[in-house]
Amino acid sequence: MSENNQIIGEDDYILLKDFKVETEVDEEKGFILCFWVYIFNSNAFPSTILKQVYAETNSSPPLLVLDEKTLMIFPLTCLLNEALGPGNTDLPSEVPKVSAEIEHPQNNWIHVGYEVSSDFVRLYINGEIAGELHLSSLSNDNSMPNGSRKRTLIGITGDSNLQGFIHDAKVLPSTLSIKEQYVKDPPLRLSIDESSISDIEEDNGFWNIVGGKASCRRIFSLDVLLLNTFGQPVNKELEVVASLLYAHNWLPVEKTNDEEPPLLASCDGIEFASCDRPCKLSKGRASFKLKISK
């Protein structure tokens, strides 16, 4: 490895389709690759989340694949190049892999750890070993020589059925603990303070207004909390904006016929378009007074 700690990406949260990185690794010395992944829309299985690109052979086999509730990781090994022809991206079923069952793989943050040594590869899910594959039986004298070989891991492209994010992706020395990386920088999320509201339900990241007459459901107040994925409160200065989206496709609701914004925020008795009125988090909490125009 060229450095002891390589941070992948400059942003905290990267769309899968935008995730692209190039890094040098030395499989003889070993290394770990770890990251948080969030999948919120996958209708076709199996779906490739990340794939590896080998410039030497012009091949791009999958690295991380989701097949319904099974998460599979394929070893960074020359055997993949031998199984694939130039330009091919399909992975034969006989290629070895490490698999783990995930109870709720979508709409949840999952921490994936990938440990590589000269003898084995291991898959970690949320800090715990989920599977292992010994490489001694897979060695091939015709493989490319050992040493640093540059590879590119990229987010999935050309698959409109898979959407999600990558957070805190790192390549690190194998001497470090994946468990420690799991608890080091967990993703953040906004959650409703249930003690501050009524007639609002939260489901898979959507806040649904329920109960009462339609006219009454148009005006409501709520407090939101900034938590990490472990449910712990986070005190961080941020601005948050309320948006009105369609539940089936996450697209913004259009303006009304008279060009009124679909969601209004009230401040000191004056209504503003919610997108024009960010609310500052104070000690990890923000309060909204909102009105749905239609």
Number of domains: 2
Q: Low-confidence parts, pLDDT < 50 over ≥5 residues?
A: 1-10, 78-89, 141-148
Please identify the top-level CATH class of the largest domain: Mainly Beta
- What coarse outline follows from CA principal-axis ratios? elongated
Q: Write down the overall mean pLDDT.
A: 76
Q: Please indicate the percent range of residues in DSSP E strands (runs of 2 or more).
A: over 45%
Per DSSP E runs of 2 or more residues, the count of β-strands stands at: 21
Oligomer description = single chain
Strand line-up in the sheet with most strands? 1-12-3-8-9-10
SS field, number of helical segments:
3
CATH fold-level label of the largest domain: Jelly Rolls
* Fraction in helix: under 10%
Structural class assignment? mainly beta
Describe the structure.
- By secondary structure, the protein is mainly β.
- The chain folds into two domains: 6-184, Sandwich (Jelly Rolls), CATH 2.60.120.200; 188-292, no CATH class.
- The chain has three helices and 21 strands.
- Strand 14 and strand 15 form a beta hairpin.
- The protein is elongated and about 70 Å long.
- Residues 1-10, 78-89 and 141-148 have low confidence and may be disordered.
- InterPro entries: ConA-like_dom_sf.
